[in-house]
Amino acid sequence: MALRQIRLYDDPLLRKTSKTVNQVDDKIRLLLDDMAETMYHSKIGGGLAAVQIGILKRLVVIDMGQGLIKLVNPVIINKEGTQKVIEGCLSIPNKWGKLNRPASVTIKALNENGDEITITGTGDLAKCICHEIDHLEGVLFTDFVEEYLDPIQ
Ligand code: ZN
Question: Under DSSP, is residue 112 helix (H, G, I), strand (E, B) or coil?
Fold first, then answer.
């Protein structure tokens, strides 16, 4: 495994649409492992999309305290309710904002073995899933922020 460099701020790659993964092979699994290592190394990140390490593939890793989730080609198939959340992003360090997200989301994806999985997340997990899937479309949380918090000193 290897730590990867995180793309920051107005790096134009962060605005690109990521491509569907056609085959979940060892190369993809290694990439997911590198993404997880990079996310955990950051200490503050609960999720990372491949585009954030410069790779335009529809891959996401998430750990909001319930264990590591690796997602290939995730798609939201249901959203319910709304919640007010506070979000940050590893690509936009030290910036936190308030925005609205669904209270619950259900996604379909492939896992690292290429098997289809369905996951429903609520609360922080729903927020994180939405944030990471937005990355795959070149969308950043700052596009939705209603109010920024004071920077953490
Ligand atoms: Zn992010």
Answer: coil
